[in-house]
Amino acid sequence: MRDQRLWTWHVMAGLVILVFLGLHMTIMHLDAIVGIFNPADPHPIAWANVVARARMGFFTVSYIVLLGAALFHGLYGLRNILFELGPGRGVKSVLNVALTVGGVGLFVFGAWAAWAAGVLARTL
Amino acid sequence: MLDNMGHPNRLGVWGWLGGGKWGLERYLYTLHRLTGLGLLLYFLLHIFVTSARAFGSEAWAASMGRVSGGVFVLGEFMVFAAFAFHAANGVRLVLVELGWAIGRPIEPVYPYRTSVHEQRPLALGIMVVAGLLVLAGGLDFFILH
């Protein structure tokens, strides 16, 4: 039952990623074709564009949502692959703890970075 | 415990890496996992690299400077291509998991038909979409820039 629930979340997270990572990829890597959300400079990673996007609350929220969804989707997928190799019960427990702690830690760090970048951008 | 008839049900990495004779969809499954692992590795590094924007323009420029150059452009394009495939194939997997695009259950009457006959057009269509996205990415990465 627990794995069914986690699998459902895995699929739901994939759909969230499809929307937000699709937008991110379009902005960052189809910029010469589509050209959206890069108001200050033709190059998406130019500091002026980074600041312009960081000032928009939408991007702060979308980065944090994408971060959480991608970490869960990716680490749960990795867990499934590793579990299919047939590790013992002890190794499974260690993997569960390591992936959960690692995922939460990365989420906290990444969410802080997105929030701090937004705060910094509004002071410039 | 299930009787495994002397054949252990643990094929290890080959169990998911090898498509064997199971056809196109089985190889898409293998490629889905490989691209997923690649995207995860990139994403974990990406969190640290892009966090530099929280420390100002100099930190951002230094961080971007460490990941610039021809090799990184090629690597980023491979990440884009992996994303295009993983996303398109993921949509196919969701549709199939929800029971769409696999046809209705039918009586096993000769000549037999399996759900693969129904799924195959979806798989091919999805690969065309992924291919078009990769082409658009290649145009943006290598020609328009």
Write structural notes for this entry.
Chain A is mainly alpha-helical. Chain A has helices at residues 2-29, 47-54, 57-84, 89-123. The model of chain A has no long low-confidence stretch (mean pLDDT 95). Chain B is mostly helical. Chain B has five helices and no strands. Chain B has helices at 13-17, 24-50, 57-66, 70-97, 115-143. The longest helix of chain B is centred in the C-terminal third of the chain and has 29 residues, at 115-143. Chain B starts with 12 loop residues before the first helix and ends with a helix. In chain B, 17% of the residues are buried. The A-B interface holds A 11, 14-15, 17-18, 21-22, 25, 29-33, 45, 47, 50, 54, 67, 70-71, 74-75, 77-78, 81, 84-86, 106, 109-110, 112-114, 116-117, 120 and B 10, 12-13, 15-16, 33, 36-37, 39-40, 43-44, 47, 50-51, 53-54, 56-57, 60-61, 64, 76, 80, 83, 87, 90-91, 94, 97, 136-137, 139-141, 144-145.
Q: What is the topology?
A:
The complex is a heterodimer of chains A (124) and B (145).
Chain A: H1 2-29, H2 47-54, H3 57-84, H4 89-123
Helix pairs in contact in A: 1-3, 2-4, 3-4
Chain B: H1 13-17, H2 24-50, H3 57-66, H4 70-97, H5 115-143
Helix pairs in contact in B: 2-4, 4-5
Sum up the overall morphology of chain B in one term: elongated
- What oligomerization state is this entry in? heterodimer
Distance from first to last alpha carbon of chain B:
59 Å
At the fourth level of CATH, the homologous superfamily of chain B is: Fumarate reductase/succinate dehydrogenase, transmembrane subunit
Largest sheet of chain A: none
Strand proportion of chain B? under 5%
Number of strands of chain B: 0
At CATH level 2, the architecture of chain A is Up-down Bundle
- Count structural domains of chain A: 1
Name the largest protein-protein interface in this structure: A-B, 37 and 37 residues
Spell out the helices and strands of chain A N to C.
Answer: HHHH
Largest sheet of chain B: none
Average predicted local confidence, pLDDT of chain B? 89
Average pLDDT metric of chain A: 95
Are there runs of chain A of 5+ residues with pLDDT below 50, and where?
none
Q: What Rg of chain A do the Cα atoms give?
A: 18 Å
CATH architectural group of chain B: Up-down Bundle
